[in-house]
What does this fold into?
Amino acid sequence: MPFFQSQAFFMIIFFRRCVSALMLSVLLFGCGGGGGGTQGDGLAGNSGSQGDAGVSQGGDSQSGGGTGGPGGDATPVAATTALVTRLGKPARVLIGLGTGNSLAQMKSQDIHPDIVDAYLVGVGAGAWPSWNSPDGAYITYTAQAIQAYGAIPMFTLYQMTANGEGNLSGLNDAIFMNNYWAQVRLMYQRIAALGAPVLVNLEPDFWGFVAAQAPDRDATRMTAVVNSQPECGGLPNTAGGLGQCLVQMGRQIAPKALVGFPPAFWSGTPAAVGAQMRAVGAHQADFIVAQTSDRDAGCREVPSPPAECTGRSGPFYWDESNIASPNFHESQRQIADYRAALGNGLPILWWQTPMGVPSATPGGTDLHYRDNRVDYMLRNTQEYGDTHTFAIVFGAGGAHQTTINTDGGQFSRLSSQYLARGGATLK
It folds into this structure.
């Protein structure tokens, strides 16, 4: 979330984002019972080479592993390049699409994203494992359909909102947490069975609520049920241990899963948030999940906005000349400062970037609100490549936002032009 938005808004965040996530996941792939889920013809060859411990990150911001040269010398490889190579994709900034953009719509416009993202929400009855039969088959069918279309599957794990946004009472409820961990384990088992790389975005917003409610914003001082899980027996029973367990469980069960944590900048400065996220093991992940905003700017500008667009103070439309605030360079600097504070030189994936169309007129209408982030980020993608970005995933963060079905062909046109230029190089 952008640094120039108030903490007060985020404490009432998004208008029940988990409800929107469930609805948008249904729009993306459907939740049919039995074998009726959307299913591809099998794995689509995006195997990439992968070690047992995820992408190897070097100690500085550039080195992410090495390749043997003549005489056994090691040539440093940028962490972004190493990660993209493991995904089996070209060495350029990858482009993706998320919720609200169906595969059928992508096919109708001949859009071929590198990554396609879907939500996993809920704990217990009605949660994502029940969306197909047998339990967890939603991941299998969804991932296979994405792979068959030539893209890398990405799943956004959003289970911690099951009791309500900011309600952390479940952390010390053994029944709730055992169900929570059983679903995380099932997610990784289903991913492992695919035998190919999958990206996982771990619990957006949750880490900000942890920081807001933990003593001194310290996740290691907030208790949680963790080490009852066999994969995490040596970890502390804290919110910090919970984050570490999400990584450790994935490494043990699904070594081809690449995981990332999304920081919540409403919980402090980039340096402070970096320290908070190190406490939950974010530096042990494979990448950083960054955001600009999850709503079209125009949705917040109309006199009577839908509920999902209320609660913030403007301005909302970013200055593409990067002079007035808010602007794109401010956002890039915020993530760069966080990355430096987190340490370990992790690559960056920008996620859930809104899809509105630029306009000099504020506002718009449902599904047609103005925004300029697709336009700027696909025209100036090298700026993001130069700041250690390996991917940008565009998608709606609510039911009223612009999608590829309502953007007048903007994404199709600009993404095609981006690819025709050869893509942005990785740093």
Remarks:
- DSSP finds 14 helices and twelve strands in the chain.
- The longest strand covers residues 115-121.
